[in-house]
UniProtKB/TrEMBL annotation:
InterPro entries: Poly_Biosynth_Transport. This is Membrane protein involved in the export of O-antigen and teichoic acid. Its main location: membrane. Keywords: Cell membrane, Membrane, Transmembrane, Transmembrane helix. It comes from Salipiger mangrovisoli. It is a multi-pass membrane protein. It comes from the Bacteria.
Length: 451
């Protein structure tokens, strides 16, 4: 083992940064692939068709937490705690229970999806029935992928759990669209949805393979399912947080589609894809640090917690500076490449970039509150954000003199500010832990100068 490997093995911070590097590379590659396939989509589909594909696919993704009974975010608490206490059978029990929950909840969620499509997009049940039905079935597949990814993070296998979802899926979609474009094949709403579904199947298979060794302990003893009501209650409390933190993009697309035209939804989708480069970078840091931060919080190790928050926060701020400059430099040429319809999305894109910046600034306050068993504040603060998001879209009806897409975007930023700032404030007042990047870094520097 060389010197660098020894340092990484012996340092929790270096382990987290190494894991972040892998996840970050996957996310950068995945986002570049996402931009590329989005560019092909908008060239092969009309703005209305692209808006329809975005709305139908995003709606399915948005409902996935219901198909898991929102047990995915509970994994970072339940599995970490069980394994840290040496009760692997209880960790295995949670994993088994989460799979049972999908088997029960997924069919109900599929029925809900079809009902919403029938109400909101009835024409596509006639013109794109095959694609809609296949996407409906993939809700169960996405539920398995989402839960598996969360369990992988809880087992400190962030790279293995995230790479399939972040890199392989967009690369597959890009490859298939390149073939469609090269052969001059006709792309329809239905066939576009089928391509999305194919990537879910591949994602499931690859994730199963990559996490196989990490999950081997679940077969070494009989799973013990103990107090599942607490898991379900925690999942319910965290549902608004899950929608906001992990499904922000698709949540905004679905909300926008309730009021805006499909052409305007297409603008929002492209703007979110560009501003999402920054959002995914921030999430990559949080994913890589979450398990270690959770263990430090459970162990009540204040200095270790501060160090993880400070290093993670500093990393996010550096990434923010780099990504903002990159987007500003390339924004106009990128929008021009999408086509004339999308050149007006520059202001929307810059506005929506404020959301990941706010997230980076205030930090992982929800994880701190969760570890301290303060689920109710998380629920109520994030529920406020969920309520404010559709209100933002409805403002376009009372402010018709302004650009509806811009009004909606500004409202989205305000809603997320309320959520992230609210959780930070509650965490600071209730636990004394400042999760903000500046606050954690100042506290760490003060601690070092006083010793």
């Amino acid at each position: 083992m060389n010197t660098i490997q020894k340092k990484i093995v012996g340092s929790e911070i270096l382990q987290a940064l190494a894991s972040f590097s892998v996840v970050m590379l996957a996310r950068v590659g995945g986002n570049l692939a996402t931009l590329a396939y989005t560019l092909i989509f908008v060239r092969l589909l009309t703005p209305a068709e692209f808006g329809a594909v975005s709305s139908l696919w995003s709606l399915a993704q948005l409902l996935v937490p219901l198909a898991t009974l929102n047990l995915a975010p509970v994994a970072i608490r339940a599995v970490v705690r069980a394994r840290q206490n040496g009760t692997d059978d209880l960790a295995a029990g949670f994993i088994a229970f989460s799979r049972q929950a999908i088997a029960i909840a997924a069919p109900c969620t599929m029925a809900l999806y079809l009902a919403i499509v029938w109400i909101k997009f009835p024409e596509y049940l006639h013109t794109s029935l095959a694609g809609v039905l296949l996407v409906t079935l993939m809700i169960a597949g996405m539920a398995r992928v989402q839960t598996g990814a969360a369990i992988g993070v809880a087992l400190d296998k962030a790279a293995a759990s995230q790479v399939p979802r972040e890199l392989v899926r967009p690369l597959m979609l890009l490859a298939m669209l390149l073939v469609v474009a090269a052969l001059g094949l006709k792309l329809t709403v239905s066939s576009a949805l089928v391509l999305y579904a194919i990537t879910v199947i591949a994602n499931m298979a690859l994730q199963h393979y990559l996490l196989r060794d990490a999950l081997a302990f679940t077969k070494a003893q009989a799973p013990r399912i103990e107090n599942p009501k607490a898991w379900l209650t925690t999942g319910l409390y965290l549902l608004p947080s899950r929608m906001i933190n992990d499904n922000a993009k698709i949540l905004m697309i679905v909300v926008a589609s309730t009021v805006l035209s499909l052409e305007q939804v297409a603008l929002i989708t492209v703007a979110l894809s560009l501003s999402g480069l920054l959002g995914f970078a921030i999430s990559a840091v949080e994913i890589s640090f979450s398990a270690k931060l959770s263990r430090a919080l459970h162990a009540r190790q204040e200095q270790r917690t501060t160090k993880l928050l400070a290093v993670g926060g500093a990393t996010k701020l550096v990434l923010c500076a780099i990504m903002v400059l990159a987007v500003l430099f390339a924004l106009k040429p990128l929008l021009a490449a999408f086509g004339k319809h999308y050149t007006s999305a520059d202001g929307i894109t810059l506005t929506l970039m404020a959301i990941p910046l706010i997230k980076a600034l205030f930090g992982k306050a929800d994880l701190v509150l969760l570890v301290h068993d303060m689920r109710k504040p998380i629920f109520w603060v994030q529920l406020m954000t969920l309520v404010l998001l559709p209100v933002s879209a409805l403002l376009t009806l009372v402010l018709p003199m302004f650009d509806p897409a811009m009004v909606t975007s500004i409202g989205f930023v305000f809603a997320f500010f309320v959520g992230y700032a609210g959780l930070w404030w509650v965490s600071l007042k209730r636990t004394g832990i400042d999760t903000s990047a500046p606050g954690a870094m100042i506290k760490l520097l003060r601690a070092r100068t006083s010793t």
